From TrEMBL:
Gene3D superfamilies xref list: 3.40.50.2300, 6.10.250.690, Winged helix-like DNA-binding domain superfamily/Winged helix DNA-binding domain
A Pfam family matched in the record: Trans_reg_C
Positions of the OmpR/PhoB-type domain: 114-208
Database matches in SUPFAM superfamilies: CheY-like
Residue ranges flagged as DNA-binding region: 114-208
PANTHER family (alphabetical): REGULATOR OF RPOS (PTHR48111), TRANSCRIPTIONAL REGULATORY PROTEIN TCTD (PTHR48111:SF67)
CDD domains for this protein: trans_reg_C (cd00383)
Positions where 4-aspartylphosphate occurs in the chain: D41
Protein name: DNA-binding response regulator
Limits of the Response regulatory domain: 1-106
Record's keyword terms, sorted: DNA-binding, Phosphoprotein, Transcription, Transcription regulation
Molecular function as annotated in GO: DNA binding
Amino acid sequence: MIAQAVLQALRDAAYAADWVRDGQAAMHVLSQHEHDAVLLDLGLPRKDGEAVLRQLRKHGDTVPVVVMTARDAIADRIAMLDLGADDYLVKPFDINELLARLRAVGRRAAGQATGKLSHGLLTLDPARHVACFDGVECELSAREYALLEALVLRRGSIVSRSTLETALYGWNEEVESNAIEFLIHRVRKKLGASVIKNVRGVGWTLGNAQPHDR
């Protein structure tokens, strides 16, 4: 029940979230797919969370890991942090605190000191899921925000369709062939035509949006 609630909250917050139920499955998917962060319960069957974390760090995997557990002893917290966890959250927890901690480890992984993401006249507020363009706030849907965030986090690079689909959709979600183009069209309509540039046959990148584009 906790996992289902967390999964839904993550998706409502515009994360593409995947869920596995045991440690061996976790190691398999983490070796096959790139993830931006891991929420790790310690009490997992087949391979417990401590063993998963130990194996990840032994193999040099630097993916941010937030431990979620009912173990509240100081010794347990110290042990997991020293083993390589980036944060430690004791159950029961408030989902908003979990999301805030997830944003914090994401900032650290990206080398950012502040909570906002910027590119030219465009600023994103991850805590509020609001885009600010040339000083004017704009409301975005969860998927529109996730699209912009994926591009801002990869600014300076051309982002492929498959990378965007992975960032926006979970494993079991059907993705229509024109879903990314539809989202880009909606974002451009709200923020300006030049905010996202298409590189034909390769993907998309952030443009240098200007006020007169709105």
